[in-house]
Each structure stands twice: as structure tokens, then as C-alpha cells.
Specification:
The complex is a heterodimer of chains A (about 500) and B (about 425). Helix content of chain A is about 35%, strand content about 20%. In chain A, the strands form five sheets. A seven-stranded mixed beta sheet of chain A has the order 6-5-15-16-17-14-18. Chain A has a six-stranded mixed beta sheet with strand order 8-2-1-12-21-20. A three-stranded antiparallel beta sheet of chain A has the order 3-7-4. The longest helix of chain A has 26 residues. Chain A contains 16 helices and 22 strands. Chain B starts with a strand and ends in a 10-residue tail after the last helix.
């Protein structure tokens, strides 16, 4: 006897629920999977928008979201992040979604920069990145196949949550996803503990075989099924609140998110076509809400009522329990420093599609799903946390964060890097070697020495060769249009 | 030359499958090929899985050629390896190294001097009276681990409860019949027997468990099951499956059998040696100071390589239906590492291969052994249902035809060798 999964019910009010519903509906249309979204409406404490990783483009291609539609709702492009103040007041470094230089006999070019820095010649990785130079000039063009440099980068987006969710909802509706608006009253469970149906305040009852919890931090479904053992990350990532709002536009909006290290967390500023978004992620143990808000107001004049979001960083050990799967923030809460909030939800959907259960009572899929998603979550936590561990900013908040011993897998990674410059990736890491190189080099975190073999190779590169590469990159960046021009939708 | 390994009698007496160096079919619409094959089978359309792998089809026909560099060609869907005489190979490498300035000292180590302060190896004393000091010592002394174990007492993790074979008898014999472009591993009453065809002779061996058979009996069983006349008396070896707790300890790196032993069932010995060497080269710092963080990083990597190979080998023993000999009853019912149990369950329930980024054996290898040893999935990925029946049938037929035609144009293994590099020639093409 099997209990075939024919009816999928997703609950939530933000864009994650629509990405989930659409993704699964598209993947299993051929099996007549019936997808219902219980739309609980936008949450009052959700930040105004997102800054995303390049993976958003992949998900858009899969879901049928067109870039022109994003631009029409005022989105902007995002080549990466500029971090200010993380290594002291005047410091600044970039992490863009692109290569650093071009390979030297199959060795990554950043090794040359490490060696230069070790020899006392400070070289910035952004001098060798098309995306970084273009971003610095507030220029943007899409990557193109054709040369190593024109294809050397990729991009994500900045956009507001509500129009984005509305866009996805409309696509979902056209694709045949059933939408029911209303608040959840009760979760009805069968004798075996599985969810049988959702009772809504309106009196409606929504039955299903598999339930997706996209309700965010409240995790209303999965908490009803399982007490939900969580792994708490607050000792490493103590920021527990965020103020955010829509703000006045930037004069020349760069295709970059900016962060600014504060005395109890960090602030961010993301451009949109007609306005901008700002936020302050902070630790309530180190600063009051009022003080945090007044710091945010200094970034840019606010144009909307600021929203206070509470955050409890950590992951649910078993995001998939019985016939209920916690997706995105209902599974893992992580501050947005790496831009991975929607990315985490998308990893969950992609993994679920690969492991989609044939039988609602089968458990082998959930074991594998929980294993894979646990690794993804840990990897994103590590990359986020590394920003705190390798910087040199002073102050009680920063010193306390650096004092806490890192999780073993991150400690091992940083130890090896510090010893010989080698960056080793484990399975299911979203950020690649070059991302770590941006962060570590940018933070001034240098190894004691390089790997012997690589040292021999990169010491042959002359400053003149590097300068020629820099020059070619600058010329390419100069040929790109201003970001503000690239934001005009062309249909 | 070698396209893979034929496994005979592993799941049931009379079974045969080849673990090839190459893919089955390839991905279609992002879904691993075997799901489509399973879908057809569930509809009653049965085609041999082997017919979707070029190196297997070629192996069965005794054909061989080098892969094409044209990625659109079916002739690019495989790799290959070699079958050679290990002592001739060692001799060749020795000459190769000496020409490049490696100094060889032929003597026995009688003593190892450790530094008083930290126990690092300072020098080794030789039987001829000489003493050789060094900064880094590579221990390739074989299973006994002259430096890593006898001098440094590093410790060894035994895996005998999963891999019970602890002895081997080896003997070469005369060739008979055509030269197969693959190695054969035949499951036997207390282990398994290898057959490695070379141009001038065939290498044979019986890897067995001393719990289940005596040396004498193993030797005579081996001699009774050769293709041709034995060319020597059997040579006997002893080992314990496992891995040194740290293959890099202080200033000593154990490579080869000194670092760990995994039976040659999947021909991983030389591979693990090469992994150790290339990883060491990757990790060595420019100042040649052996920071413990580097040592720890190296050891983690090597452990991962060994452990992943280990799980793959255990699968061969565990996935059997044989009940005709005590060793197979033991292996069929033994408890296996959790990591492997999870992989097998996921495959059995829904044909999903657990994949990883690093490590030797990738999806096609796991598929070959799962299917070859009758770990049959109860279901396949529902994503594979998206393609209409007719299109699926035509795509699969195209793959089979391309492979069939590709193999038809290939020379036999003997023809290939005669043209490429016949034995006895000193040079030949590179």
C-alpha cells in the first residue's frame, strides 16, 4: 500500500512560498501534482526587500520569471557587496560574484595577490575583476560568452519583496497553482502524526499529502508536527534584530549592496531604480532598538515606516519531519550578510524536487534531504561567520564575536588557509573558492606562506603582466553602460 | 589496456557485470539516465543496461580504442586504464627516477633516530653502516610501516569486520584465448580471484579470509582455476584492511601500504598512492615547515579518500544473495557503516545515488555495482516521467545504436596493441 503524493500544500505569505509552489508545480506538472498555496499574507515584520545571489537567475529561468518584469518593478542589478568599516573605520573591500584575474597555468590568479601581499606589495583583488571595476564606476552589463573576461562574472538582484511576491503569485496563478487567501486556524493531524489538513480561520479546510512550511520564523506547520530541535548559532552570530526600510535613492546607484560595520552589528544600503533599501542588523545585547534605528537613519532618509525584525540565528536539525518540510527561514535563520536568504529556500526546493517523495509515508527521502540541507546551512553559516572572524575591527561586540571558537568545520578551513593559503571546500558549499578569496584577501587575512608548488608558479608573474591585465579589465568596464541606464526595462 | 573490471558470481553464482570507466547513457533533461532505463523496465520494455555503456559493449566484444577528444562523439564517453606487471612497472619507474637524479640506496633500515625534543625522525640508520638524515621522510615500506608505525607508533584502524579478507596468494600463468580489455574478479568460496591479462602472461591471485580457508587450500584452489599453465609457485601475502590513524605524523608521510590497505578489488592501490603524493605536493608549504594545521588538513583529505573507497568495496561484499559459503553468509548479514547503509537504502527505495564532490567513485561506478549486484530500486525519480513514451524510446534507441556503431568501428584489443605498442618493443608511441 502506498500513499501517493498527489496534493501539495504550501503555506506562507512571502516570495518563498510562491517560488516553492511554482517550482514544484513546474517540475511535476506531468504527474498532475495539484499545488495549493495558503497565502497568509505579507508578514508585518518582514524586511522590505532582498539582495540576492546569482542563483536567483537560475530559479527565474526555471520558473519563467523575466528580467524585464523585475526591472519594471524597480529592481536593480547586483554584482556583489562592498563592505566598509569591517577592518577599521576607513577600510573597504569588495566581494563580487566573479573571478579575480585569469588563471595562471590553471592556478587561480588570487594566489599571485597573496604572494604580492606576503612580499609587502599590497594588491587589491578588485583591480583584477571586471565586475568590481564596473561596479566601482556604477556601470553594468550582462556577462557574455566570448572571452575569459567578458564571461568572468555573474550577478544577482536587489528588489522589493511585495511586488516580487505579487509577480510570482501571478505567474503561479496562470500556471494553475491554486491560491487560497486566509489565516491558519489549526493544523489537523492523522493518527500516524502526519498532517492531514489545514483548518483556516475562514472555515475552509485544505487537505494535502505533503505540506511545505514557508511561514518564515514562526514555522507554524512544522512546529505543530515536531517540537523541532534547533541548533542555536547565536554564540557565533549574536545579531538578533534588524531594522529595515525603504529609503531615498542613491545619487549614482552602483550595482552593489553596501554594508557598513557599526558598533553592534552592521548596516546595509541597497539601490533600487527609484529608491533604495536600508537595514541595520544588530545585537540587542550591545545596543538599544532606538539607538540602532537612529544609526540607520544616518545612512539615508527613510521613506517608509521602519520595520523591526527579530532574528534567532540557527537551524532546525530536521527541516523535513513526517509529511511536512520547513523551507527557507522556517528551517534556517541566518542574517542576510551573504545575501543568501532566498538562496536557502531555493536550495531546499531544488533538493526537494530531486528527492520528491513518491509515497507520503516514505522516510528515506527526508533523511537524505535533512543531511543535504544541514550541510548547505552549515556552509552558509560558515561563510557568514567568517566575515566576523577574520576582520580586525575593535569594540566590545566585535571582540566578543572573534573570541568564540569557530565551529570545527570552519576552524579547519581557516586554519589550513592561514598555514599555507589553501582553501578547501566540502560538499554542498554554495560559495566557491573565489568567494572565500574575496573575503579573506579583502579582510587582509593572509596565510603564513603559500603552497610550495603554487608559490613557484605565481612568482613568475611580473607586476607588468598584472598591470596589463588590470588595464584590459578597466577598458572592458569602461565600455559598459551606466547601471542606471541598464535598469530601464526594454520589454 | 583496461576498460573496467568484470565481476563474476558476486550477487549470485552465474552473474557477470562490468564496472566500466565511463557513463551509462548520460543525463537527459537533467535527470540521471538510469531513471529512464528503470522507467522503461517498469513498462515491460527490457534492454540490457550494458547496452548503454560503450566501454562495456566494447569489452564484451574484446574491442579497444583510445577515447576521442570530440565531446559530441560517443567515443568520448569513456576512459581507460592499464593492466601491467607490477614488478616491471616498478623497475621502469626506478629507472625513470634515477635518470632524473633520484639517488637510490640499496640497504636495510636497522634503526630510526628520533629527535629528543619532539619525536620527529632525525635519521635512519642502514645495515651498511650509513645514516641518512632528512627533513621529511616518506614511508613506502609497505604494510609493516617501518617509520610510521614501528618508529612513530601511529596506530591503525582495522576494517576487518567489513572487509574480512586478510591473505592473498598470487601466481602468473600462461595466456590462453583472446586478451580481454578488462580485469576479472570472480567471487570464490572464501574471497575472490583476480585475473589480469597481459600480453606475455596472465596475473592471477586469490584474495581470501584466513577465517574461512587455509593457505594450502587457497593455493591449490587458485592453481586449479587458471587459464593456462602456472609459471611459478604461488606467493602468499598477509594484510589487514584498514588505515593508519594519521598517514602524516610529525615529519613522516606514509604512502601506499604503509598508509593503509584496501584490497585490490577495485584496483585502488595505485590510485590511493597517487592521491597521497599529489595531495602532499598540493599541501606542502613554500617554507617546508610542517605546520600541524597543514598536517591535519592533509590527514582529513586522505581519510576522506580512504573512507569513501572503503564504503564502495564493502558494497561488493554486502550486496549478495549468495548463501553457499560461510563468508558470503557473514558478509550478507554483517552490519555495515551507517554512511553506506544510507546510500544503499536511498538507491533501493528510489534509485538515487548519493553523490559527493571529491573521492574516486562517482555515480556510474555506484550504478554499475548496485545494478550488477541486484540492488534493484523499487522506484525511479518521478522527474523521469516527464518525457513522452515515444520520445523516450527513440532517445534510448539512439544511444544504443550510437554505441553499437561506435564499437563496430573499433579494432580488437589485440589489433590495437599490435599497432600501438606490442610488448617487447623498447619504445612505441607515447
Amino acid at each position: 500500500m502506498t500513499a501517493q503524493v498527489r496534493r501539495l500544500v504550501a503555506v506562507g505569505g512571502g516570495s518563498a512560498v510562491w517560488i516553492a509552489a511554482l517550482g514544484l508545480q513546474r517540475a511535476f506538472r506531468h504527474r498532475q501534482l495539484e499545488v495549493t498555496v495558503v497565502d497568509t499574507g505579507p508578514s508585518r515584520d518582514a524586511p522590505p526587500g532582498h539582495w540576492t545571489l546569482p542563483s536567483q537567475r537560475g530559479i527565474h529561468a526555471m520558473l519563467g520569471v523575466r528580467e524585464a518584469d523585475l526591472l519594471r518593478m524597480g529592481a536593480s542589478f547586483r554584482l556583489g557587496t562592498e563592505h566598509r568599516g569591517w577592518n577599521g573605520a576607513e577600510s573597504r573591500f569588495l566581494h563580487v560574484h566573479g573571478e579575480i584575474g585569469t588563471d595562471i597555468e590553471k592556478m587561480p590568479f588570487y594566489k599571485y595577490l597573496q604572494l604580492a601581499a606576503l612580499s609587502g606589495r599590497e594588491e587589491k583583488p578588485e583591480h583584477y575583476s571586471v565586475a568590481a571595476i564596473a561596479a566601482g564606476m556604477a556601470r553594468f552589463a550582462r556577462p557574455k560568452e566570448g572571452s575569459a573576461l567578458t564571461a568572468s562574472f555573474t550577478y544577482g538582484f536587489h528588489f522589493e519583496e511585495r511586488p516580487y511576491a505579487a509577480l510570482l503569485r501571478e505567474i503561479a496563478r496562470v500556471q494553475g497553482v491554486r491560491c487560497i487567501e486566509g489565516a491558519l486556524a489549526q493544523v489537523n493531524r492523522a493518527a500516524d502524526g502526519n498532517i492531514e489538513a489545514l483548518q483556516l480561520v475562514s472555515g475552509d479546510r485544505v487537505e494535502g499529502d505533503l505540506f511545505l512550511d514557508c511561514s518564515g520564523r514562526d514555522a507554524v506547520l512544522v512546529n505543530a508536527v515536531d517540537a523541532g530541535e534547533r541548533e542555536d548559532w547565536t554564540k557565533w552570530l549574536p545579531c538578533d534584530r534588524q531594522w529595515s526600510a525603504i529609503a531615498a535613492p542613491q545619487a549614482t546607484p552602483p550595482p552593489l549592496t553596501r554594508t557598513l560595520a557599526g558598533n553592534a552589528g552592521w548596516l546595509w544600503w541597497a539601490p533600487l531604480a527609484q529608491s533604495s533599501m536600508v537595514g541595520h542588523v544588530f545585537s540587542s545585547a550591545h545596543i538599544s532598538d532606538d539607538e540602532a534605528l537612529s544609526q540607520l537613519r544616518k545612512v539615508a532618509p527613510l521613506q517608509s515606516e521602519p520595520v523591526l525584525t527579530r532574528l534567532s540565528q540557527g537551524k532546525r536539525r530536521q527541516p523535513w519531519v513526517r509529511n511536512c518540510i520547513a523551507l527557507g527561514e522556517s528551517a534556517t535563520e541566518l542574517e542576510p550578510l551573504a545575501g543568501a536568504t532566498l538562496h536557502l529556500a531555493q536550495l531546499g526546493i531544488g533538493t526537494l524536487i530531486e528527492l520528491f517523495p513518491l509515497d507520503a509515508r516514505s522516510t528515506v527521502e527526508s533523511v537524505e534531504y535533512n543531511r543535504i540541507m544541514g550541510e548547505h546551512a552549515d556552509a552558509l553559516r560558515d561563510f557568514t561567520l567568517a566575515h566576523y572572524l577574520v576582520n580586525a575591527r575593535s569594540g566590545a561586540f566585535w571582540e566578543a564575536t572573534r573570541r568564540e571558537p569557530a565551529p570545527a568545520r570552519l576552524a579547519e578551513k581557516l586554519d589550513l588557509y592561514r598555514a599555507n593559503g589553501r582553501i578547501v571546500l566540502l560538499d554542498n558549499e554554495s560559495f566557491e573558492e573565489v568567494d572565500w578569496a574575496w573575503l579573506l584577501l579583502g579582510s587582509g587575512c593572509l596565510p603564513a606562506v603559500l603552497e610550495a608548488q603554487i608559490h613557484r608558479l605565481v612568482e613568475k608573474v611580473t607586476p607588468a603582466e598584472a598591470a596589463a591585465l588590470h588595464h584590459r579589465i578597466v577598458e572592458l568596464a569602461k565600455s559598459m553602460p551606466p547601471h542606471s541606464q541598464a535598469l530601464r526595462p526594454h520589454g | 589496456m583496461k576498460f573496467g573490471i568484470e565481476f563474476v558470481d558476486w550477487a549470485r553464482l552465474g552473474d557477470s557485470y562490468i564496472h566500466p570507466f565511463g557513463v551509462y547513457g548520460g543525463k537527459m533533461a537533467g535527470v540521471p539516465f538510469h531513471n529512464y532505463w528503470l522507467r522503461q523496465a517498469s513498462q515491460g520494455i527490457h534492454t540490457p543496461l550494458e547496452s548503454y555503456s560503450l566501454p562495456i559493449v566494447a569489452s564484451r566484444q574484446g574491442k579497444f580504442t583510445l577515447p576521442s577528444e570530440d565531446h559530441t562523439s560517443v567515443l568520448s564517453t569513456f576512459g581507460y586504464a592499464f593492466q601491467f606487471d607490477a614488478s616491471l612497472y616498478a623497475k621502469y619507474l626506478r629507472g625513470f627516477c634515477e635518470q632524473r637524479g633520484v639517488v637510490r640506496t640499496d640497504s636495510k633500515i636497522v634503526d630510526v633516530q628520533l629527535r629528543g625534543t619532539d619525536g620527529w625522525i632525525e635519521s635512519v640508520k642502514l645495515e651498511n653502516g650509513a645514516s641518512i638524515s632528512g627533513d621529511l621522510f616518506i614511508d613506502c615500506s609497505g604494510f609493516r610501516g617501518l617509520l610510521i608505525e614501528q618508529a612513530l607508533k601511529t596506530g591503525y584502524d582495522e576494517w576487518t569486520k567489513w572487509l574480512p579478507c586478510d591473505r592473498a596468494a598470487a601466481v602468473p600463468c600462461e595466456n590462453s584465448g583472446p586478451l580481454t580489455p578488462y580485469t576479472r574478479a570472480t567471487a570464490r568460496e572464501a574471497g575472490w580471484q583476480w585475473r589480469i591479462p597481459l600480453q606475455h602472461r596472465t596475473g592471477n591471485g586469490y584474495v581470501y579470509s584466513s577465517q574461512f580457508i587455509s593457505d594450502d587450500e587457497a593455493g591449490s584452489k587458485l592453481l586449479s582455476r587458471l587459464d593456462g599453465k602456472a609459471l611459478a609457485d604461488p606467493r602468499f601475502l598477509r594484510f589487514t584492511a584498514g588505515r593508519r590513524r594519521k598517514t602524516w605524523n610529525r615529519n613522516c608521510v606514509a604512502i601506499g601500504l604503509a598508509g593503509g590497505f584496501l584490497e585490490p578489488l577495485e584496483s585502488t592501490s595505485i590510485h590511493l598512492i597517487q592521491v597521497a603524493i599529489t595531495t602532499l605536493i598540493d599541501y606542502l608549504p613554500a617554507n617546508m615547515e610542517f605546520d600541524e594545521r597543514i598536517v591535519a588538513g592533509y590527514n582529513r583529505w586522505i581519510e576522506m579518500e580512504y573512507d569513501r573507497v572503503r564504503d564502495f568495496l564493502i558494497l561488493h561484499y554486502h550486496a549478495t544473495e549468495r548463501d553457499d559459503a560461510p563468508i558470503w553468509n557473514y558478509c550478507r548479514t554483517m552490519s555495515i557503516p551507517d554512511s553506506l547503509a544510507h546510500k544503499m537504502e536511498l538507491f533501493r527505495e528510489r534509485a538515487k545515488v548519493v553523490t559527493y564532490k571529491d573521492g574516486l567513485f562517482l555515480e556510474p561506478s555506484w550504478l554499475a555495482v548496485y545494478f550488477g549486484q541486484r540492488v534493484m530500486p523499487r522506484a525511479y525519480s518521478p522527474l523521469a516521467d516527464a518525457l513522452p513514451d515515444a520520445e523516450l524510446a527513440s532517445r534510448l534507441a539512439t544511444v544504443r545504436t550510437q554505441i553499437h556503431e561506435g564499437v563496430a568501428g573499433m579494432p580488437t584489443h589485440e589489433e590495437f596493441l599490435a599497432q600501438y605498442c606490442p610488448a617487447g618493443m623498447s619504445g612505441g608511441k607515447p
